[in-house]
Amino acid sequence: MKRRATLALALAGSLATPFIPASTGPVPVAGAEPVFATPTTLDRIGRILVPVTINGLGPFKMLVDTGANRTAITTDVAKRLGLDYAKAPTVVLNGVTGSESVPAVLVVRMRAGDLVLDGQQVPVVLPHLIGGADGILGVAGLRDQRLVVDFKRDLVTISRSRFARSDELRIRADRVAGGLLGAHVRIGHVRALAVIDTGGQKTLGNRALQAALRADAQSQATVYGTTEATMIGDIAAVPDIRMDGAVFRHVVVAFGDFHIFDVWGLSDEPALIIGMDVLGAMDTFMIDFRLAEIHLRG
Length: 298
Fold this sequence. Notes:
- It is a single chain.
- Helices cover 7% and strands 43% of the residues.
- The two termini are 31 Å apart.
- By secondary structure, it is mainly β.
- The strands form 3 sheets. Strands 12, 13, 14, 15, 16, 17, 18, 19, 20 and 21 form a 10-stranded mixed beta sheet that branches. Strands 2-3-8-4-7-6 form a 6-stranded mixed β-barrel.
């Protein structure tokens, strides 16, 4: 089964998607199985979904992706909306393993709670490249909001930025390419930049980080992205990852010359993408885009 590694959506020469400021409260979800905030366990990788209405239809379950500055929908959703993507103009989609020209359709309005996007040119991708979700809600372009994910209560909230609880561990972050948030980390004796990617299943590292850590491959695995291109990654355990006051232990990283590091300008210096194999093990995590902070609990 193809499993998604990470995602970055980009229109060639375009800026990050603008978002209208939103204020929305959490909506409880009934049932024993997680519907929106699925935690990472020994037998599965977590993911984050949010209900989104598109052109008044839906809701559709969209994957929340802090590693994407654009939003995308699947071909199935485009058909339900009556959007003729076969005749639509094409744009360049950059994924972890390569780039590809895909059609982009005009969406009049998308709404996730009080978060509203109007007049968006949205790339259309094949369903199997997103692992069963209806699309991707790219949130790297958020400026005044925060994303809160509570795995224990199965809640996902996008709301206005405000001061958080004092019992949360706060990690400082910086804006990097395309509005992404990156945190400075130490992995063993090596300093690196870590991009937080809620859309990525696995944690990935570039070759510069692998060389600095002298991390020999313990095995290899195929890495899939949001295009049909695939790559082989070197699998290796890394020393403790220290991010301000947080310490992540027993992390396994896939190293490779991944295309997305070139897109982000992060190929020459040690860098990694922290995916849901790590983030989904928290009780709660929050990203405040205005304050450029990552908050962890549990």
